């Protein structure tokens, strides 16, 4: 009942287990064809079925790799088999994976990683001294001086120290304590773990978690899995997706009726929206959290991805501290970062960390205990994180090349952000807010009534219908706004800005052409 | 601010705020979770290491971490070929370097071709890189004498632990006395009890038979199941083979009996086989549950639901830190399998370097490859040393009065039984400690040797054990075993 209500508030289209079923049916058929098992005469019912499985898991959705992406996979297979299509390749603009779209890894980072992986290379003249120094430092701190040992569950000590030093520098001297740093398997792991610890109560006292709409669907997925209550607060599309404290107030008041709101999640810079919150806004949010006694989660994985010259990244930690002791000693905060985004794009390494502020020491003990069951985050990811927070500095041999590569990636992203915003805004029936940061465009699309009806006939959310058509006709895979949440009656899609510039231009042109045709077809 | 729960009420009275997140307000299931392998005794070991670094005088010069199955931390060297290929994948510039053998380069190129953007830095498909899943399937087929494995039934994971948790998660449903019950061995690897606590599932213990080298008895499975049916809905049966902490390697007959039992009683089988490469005892052989199941034919082969797990952390590789692993599911409902993939997709993908390492584990150098000789030599050396250490451990412990150790047939641990004098048990109880925890803490304080008390794994009431790894280098291990035996004798005398 509560979940149904949450869904309605989320403004999503009808839940589409059928789209899962439909797009994977051919994959499943293929699977059973391949597996040569003697057919049984009378098959008994399985122990583990959709009916008997964990209902909370069933409720989980994750649109970024959901039905449309499964469909994209099927189409790719068809292309491989030589089936003719109106396009020659599928463009995966659904996921924030820069290197998959051709972005090159940072040389220095991979050099240090290679040295750590195969320490014989420490004798090789082909590696700069500063890379070797870092590798030695990391290896010294590892069990058996090897990336192959488990680390402490909280992460390798010296890496946590480096993270704390990075945070202190980033925040203009506001101190960070290594003891408050936990390395994680990507930021997702840390976010999931903190939410897990926070969820308690039953019925009307079940923990409520406030999340932005639109959101990155890790949050809704984890909330579903934990059987917590999702409490939506809407970002203001008219106002560049700004966060309005009045809207936070409305959401929390309404929520108190049916749950115990305890947590407030912020994504800054935003995903999918790309907005970069102003300092004033962050102060207002902190004050609100203090007033309402909410545990703050600040998802800051895009902190290195700020493009708009009018915007700056302000960490929640820094602002909290600068607001004085009443706030800085009381507000419980967890901030998250990752190696997957920024200028590094090291998604596959699953590196990340969280910094926790004002957590009860007994809770920190519980946190380490929970993490210890999974032993430790991947040590190579921890090493990658170390290089991110401890890059070459001026005077070091690798500094020049490192800076060049970093600026090149970020400059490129900024250019593509502007390009995307501009091009989308030229299309009648598409409106795109400024891409102030992150890696995505989340344009609003006008879907004619006839198309909405057609979508309903197919039992699909209208923007899913739109995106499926886009995929089938152009090979471009984007994620419908219903996967992230949006105001009722509005439609969007999220597209990454990651393809190389020329390709991106082509993609944007294709989307434009498709959209115009779509409008005509369903006029 | 270091406020204990007691201080919190005082804090409120003083006008300070209570926290949002406290022991009282947190997830109660998480509170019940315990994981002894990194539990209180290890925290004490950390403190002692800290004190040693600060120059505090102790009866020992180093803390020996014999608590965790981490071979490389105890000095075991990584396999050269694995690290060469991985380095090439990490830094493809090295593909032009003369210092790497051709077969390593070929492997690296093959893996990179299969990665997004030809880079380890791209996310992979959530079930793992297709090519690697195919290689895993082929490995399974070779291992199982040709019995087919479908890559679509193989899911790579962040260590085996990740996949075990995922499968258990799927199985948990119901409420009250229809709540899912899961049968686990006692003694067990405490990931199982921890996960069941976290998921709010019902733990159903079945006891391994210490008198018979920790054998698994179907009659004991029956007993456990019948008892459980009153208060939960038993839906899964977990087997660890080779066993952790016990090291027993199940016979083929036993595995068949377990499969028959699971089929008759409608239990989903989880087979934790991460130690499949660690078999030492002369009479023992690893039989995969998958193989035995298939060879049993109908009705079992086509219907018994099974999930089998493997990892890069153990074996001869010891690559714990890379968090590589996989699960093979057999006879899983197709729709549930899609649900499992969906669940995995929320966390995007397992670490790609770990996937790459797994690939090398399942498709090592062939006899005709340039790296084969060195690879074989290294592999044999590691396994031979482990076998020697397994034998040594059993021997030394069995020579000590009051300690008895079952044969360490496989895995990486000894789990000896220790006699503790009644006065020691009383003292422990006074201190609010499990008697074997008391013993282990004293051992740690006086010798620096850190092992995990049997109470962390489960044991029959009134018996005491500890789990110690066999991983320290051979000569060091010998010294440790003797030290430990002497300590036990001294301890026994002290509390007589």
Strand content of chain A: 5-15%
Number of helices of chain A: 19
Largest sheet of chain A: 7 strands, mixed
Strand segment tally of chain A: 14
CATH topology of the largest domain in chain B: Aspartate Aminotransferase, domain 2
Oligomer designation: heterodimer
Gross morphology of chain A: globular
Q: Looking across the biggest beta sheet of chain A, what order are the strands in?
A: 2-8-7-6-5-3-4
CA-based gyration radius of chain B:
24 Å
Distance between the termini of chain B: 45 Å
Count of alpha/pi helices of chain B: 18
Q: Report the major sheet of chain B.
A: 7 strands, mixed
Cα shape of chain B: globular
Number of domains of chain A: 2
Total strands of chain B: 14
Q: State the name of the first-level CATH class of the largest domain in chain A.
A: Alpha Beta
Q: Strands across the major sheet of chain B, in which order?
A: 2-8-7-6-5-3-4
Write the layout of secondary structure elements.
The complex is a heterodimer of chains A (523) and B (496).
Chain A: H1 2-10, H2 17-34, H3 55-59, H4 67-80, E1 91-92, H5 107-117, H6 129-140, H7 157-170, E2 181-185, H8 186-198, E3 207-213, H9 218-226, E4 229-234, H10 245-256, E5 260-267, H11 279-292, E6 295-299, H12 316-322, H13 325-328, E7 333-338, E8 351-357, H14 361-372, H15 379-389, H16 399-425, E9 430-431, E10 440-441, E11 444-445, H17 449-457, H18 462-474, E12 476-477, E13 479-480, E14 493-496, H19 501-521
Parallel strand pairs in A: 1-12, 3-4, 3-5, 5-6, 6-7
Antiparallel strand pairs in A: 2-8, 7-8, 9-11, 10-14, 13-14
Helix pairs in contact in A: 2-4, 4-18, 5-6, 5-15, 7-15, 8-9, 10-11, 16-19, 17-18, 18-19
Chain B: H1 5-13, H2 28-32, H3 40-53, E1 64-65, H4 80-90, H5 102-113, H6 130-143, E2 154-158, H7 159-171, E3 180-186, H8 191-199, E4 202-207, H9 218-229, E5 233-240, H10 252-264, E6 268-272, H11 289-295, H12 300-303, E7 306-311, E8 324-330, H13 334-345, H14 352-362, H15 372-399, E9 403-404, E10 413-414, E11 417-418, H16 422-430, H17 435-447, E12 449-450, E13 452-453, E14 466-469, H18 474-494
Parallel strand pairs in B: 1-12, 3-4, 3-5, 5-6, 6-7
Antiparallel strand pairs in B: 2-8, 7-8, 9-11, 10-14, 13-14
Catalytic activity (chain A): L-alanine + 2-oxoglutarate = pyruvate + L-glutamate
Keywords (chain A): Aminotransferase, Pyridoxal phosphate, Transferase
Subunit structure (chain A): Homodimer.
